[in-house]
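Bit of a strange request maybe. I'm writing a small parser for structure token strings and I need a real example to test against, not something I typed by hand. Could someone generate the tokens for this chain?
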Amino acid sequence: MNKIIVSFLMLSVISCNANDEDQALGNKASIIGEWYVEKAEIYRSINQQIQTTFSTDCQKMSTHEFTSSHLLSISYAQSNNNCVKTEAVAKKYTFEKGNGKLWFEGEENYPYFVTQLTETDMVIEDRIQDLDGDGIKDVLKRFYKRTN
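Reply from user aminoacidic:
Good idea to test on real output. This should exercise your parser:
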């Protein structure tokens, strides 16, 4: 009888551990998937102000799909009263999850940084442009939402 109880307990423990591991693996955030830009923030060094812009419904139709090796972007823009597809681009990328550094093939000296990554949200910072012309690089944050 003790052997049956011990066997049952061992099976229960193994089953629970496997389930917990499966859940933990399923909950890990990843850039792989399809995203759209919900809003952007520009931190301007010239006046230490943050300018926020929200994507229109048409712009939210633009998707950025990260596969294991490429980013596939399809852009939409307003033309008269219609939302039309304007561009489709595929770029090979490298992502270092440990430090959040992301760059595209041939643009290794111009990295982006993934500063937030959850199952549903991602923030990518562009720190390589002087958007206000004061000679200091500004920070452009794009706030992404997962579509799938």
